Amino acid sequence: MPGMIALRRAIARYLERAKGIKYDPATEILVSNGAKQSVFQSLLVVLTPGDKVLIPAPYWVSYPDMVKLAGGVPVILPTRLENSYLIEPQVLRETLLANPTTRVLILCNPSNPAGVLHGPELLAEIAQVLQEFPNVLVLADEIYEQLVFQDEGTPERRHISVASLPGMYHRTLVINGFSKSHAMTGLRVGYLAAPKVFTAAASKIQSQITSCPSSVGQIAAIAALDLEESSPTPLIAGTLANMDEKRKYVCGRLNAMPHVKYAHPTGAFYVFIEFPHYIGTGFKTPAGVDIDTDEAFSTYLLGSFHTAIVPGSAFGVEKAVRLSYATSLEILGHSLDAFENSLKSLVK
After folding, report:
1. What spatial distance separates the first Cα and last Cα of the chain, rounded to whole Å?
2. CA atoms within 13 A on the CB side of 249
3. Could you tell me if 265 and 132 lie in one domain?
4. Is 225 in the same domain as 289?
5. What is the percentage of the chain residues whose pLDDT exceeds 90?
6. With contact defined as beta carbons under 8 Å apart, do 280 and 319 qualify?
7. pTM for this prediction
8. Among 230, 245, 262, where does a domain finish?
9. Which of 18, 70, 97, 162 is deepest in the core (most CB within 10 A)?
10. What angle do CA 80, 240, 328 make, to 5 degrees?
11. Could you give the CA distance from residue 10 to residue 269 in angstroms, rounded to a whole number?
12. Both 265 and 216 in a single domain?
């Protein structure tokens, strides 16, 4: 049920090598059908009806509904574009004080949809705040942890797991997988790494839902980790270089567009864009349709410019959109042309 022992051992070696965290592969790692299942099962394990869960916004669209399905109550933790959508420790403390029945903080790092990384120093500050609230667990969604970018003239960025920080191992449920780091999206292999009190309960739930992930996917994951372990250079280096080129291209294009703001992307492969100048301020399409919401804009972009983009309201932030640059430069060029031209076409 918990996954092939060879895969769990390979995962344990990776986490110790890359993150400095030791897990017992026999009892503290549970392999599931993708990280999404791991997230949901973890919530089912730790929540009792009425427990509150802090979810930083912008958030992955599934988090609030997963919390509700598990009997919990989502509480949105606000972040600011001016602070690159990063958690502010003082705001976290104030929100926890205002919500004393909080059981979980969900921390997606790097963030989908914001595309930003919480670095080691900020994570340490967050962990320090959490020491004041010993009943709060952290669900650390680290599926994008290998997708971290560098910028000339800035300190080197690196991902650390919040579970590696002092006092955090026993209260952190780490979620990861192979979809993003190893381009294995369709094979559906994710995992939970946590103290056995959590993995044992999650394993019981999984046994009644899917039993175990595909053996084909698990064998592929073993091969990927074995190859990664023996490689003198990170396997993801080529992918990162390719993604970085597209990241810089997107930023350059957006910088040239008036009234468009975004958080500088430092991880994952998303850019979260705010453009309140155009939303709900009287702008209309040439056909006279009000652009009163980001959903209305996204519908216009798709219908008139044949370009799909996700409205920010789906992620808890209005008057915004999420752009993914996990595609070719050619498609990105056409898509950004469409985005820019759609804004230029709006009239008052």
Report:
1. 60
2. 22
3. no
4. no
5. 95
6. yes
7. 0.95
8. 230
9. 162
10. 90
11. 26
12. no
Report how far apart, in Å, the C-alpha atoms of 120 and of each of 106, 145, 165, 251 are: 17, 13, 9, 25
CA distance 161 to 176: 11
In the block, which residue shows the tokens 């074995």?
226
Whether residues 243 and 333 fall in one domain: yes
Take residue 196 and report the two structure tokens written for it. Answer: 């056995």
Please name every residue paired with 29 in a beta bridge, in sequence order, or none if there are none. 193
Residue finishing a domain among 170, 199, 230: 230
Residue 291 in tokens = 């652009």
Distance of CA 29 to the CA centre of its chain: 20
30/48 same-domain check:
yes
Q: Judge if 263 and 330 occupy the same domain.
A: yes
| φ, ψ for residue 43, nearest 5 deg | -65, -40
Q: How many domains does the chain have?
A: 2
- Structural domain range at position 135: 5-230
What's the CA gap between 224 and 228, in Å, rounded? 6
Confidence category of residue 88, pLDDT binned at 50, 70, 90: very high
Give residues with Cβ within 8 angstroms of 83, minimum separation 6. none
- Looking at the structure, do residues 17 and 157 belong to the same domain, yes or no? yes
Tokens of 311: 């409205």
The pLDDT value given to residue 235:
84
* Span 292-310, pLDDT tens digits: 999 999 999 999 999 999 9
Task: State phi, psi for 347 to the nearest 5 degrees.
Answer: -130, 155
- Looking up residue 142, the CATH number of its domain turns out to be 3.40.640.10
